[in-house]
Amino acid sequence: MPKASILFPLLAVLAQPVAALTLDLPAKVLGEETRSELPGSYALPTGPFDGQTVPSRQVEGALDQRAFRLDAPGATTLAIFAPLRDQVVAGGYEIIFECDARACGGFDFRFNTDVLPEPDMHVDLGDFRFLSAQRGNEAVSILVSRSAGAAYVQITRVEDSPVPAISEVTPVELDDTVPSQGTAEAPPPASNLTAALDGVGSAVLDDLVFASGAATLTNGDFPSIAAVAAWLEANPDGAIALVGHTDASGSLAANTALSERRAEAVAKVLIERFKVDPARVAAKGVGYLAPRATNQTEEGRQKNRRVEVIVTSTR
């Protein structure tokens, strides 16, 4: 079966030249998608899903991420993965983490790592292999999976790179000037949210940020969740439903499950931190079926990754 070689050329921007990484893909390439950022950053997985998140190390520099669809209808994921792993090691990289689908954490690993969206990169949640490796200040990861008729390979590489010089700057003076009484100020988020719950019976928790495929809330103060807890305290007969939403990356089944986990993450904060009665909080997910923005841009996809609160009873 014909093979294809890929060269990662980003090292051309480095101050000190180092041998470029060339990998021979073990089958004919049927399709390719590329994402490049300079400078860019990548959370390099360093361990399997631990019950809350995927341990990772943030690496920064010139990022090159590519997804390939290969003509390999009968090849196993190991048959595709093994020669790539051997080439990475031969290239002077040290493997720091390697796993198959089950050892990685299946669904939770896939949706807590950076993966190009379907259909460019397909991941069978029960049949994939992954590795992270490093060579000096360079990092590379390889994700291999397959569908019924093709194999899929995602290769992510990050290298040291100087930050491009800024061609133009605009001075901004920051001071402690207090706005005059005539200056209109937007009400704080808590006021907006409680007013919305009292008025229309629903609101978006806009201060929650979810990465694509992730359901974990970082530690911190979330005024919107505190406002929901305050509303429940002020309305002791009230009950709410938290509804999770996703962008359109991936299948409906996977996104529905992910969106419910996002809603459950918010419910957990309400119950554990604010001592809300669990009987008053429901958590559901609808996947990507109710977008509030386009899924054609990253800004729109970020808006679609959200949790909404809906008043279900005031008795």
Task: Write structural notes for this entry.
Helices cover 23% and strands 32% of the residues. β6 (128-135) and β7 (138-146) form a beta hairpin. α4 (189-199) packs across α5. With 315 residues, the chain is α+β, with helices and mostly antiparallel strands. The protein folds into two domains: 4-159, 3-Layer(aba) Sandwich (Protein Transport Mog1p, Chain A); 189-313, OmpA-like domain (60s Ribosomal Protein L30, Chain: A), CATH 3.30.1330. It is built from seven helices and twelve strands. It is globular, with a radius of gyration of 23 Å. The strands form three sheets. The protein has a six-stranded antiparallel β-sheet. Strands 9-12-10-11 form a four-stranded mixed β-sheet. Residues 8-18 and 178-188 have low confidence and may be disordered.
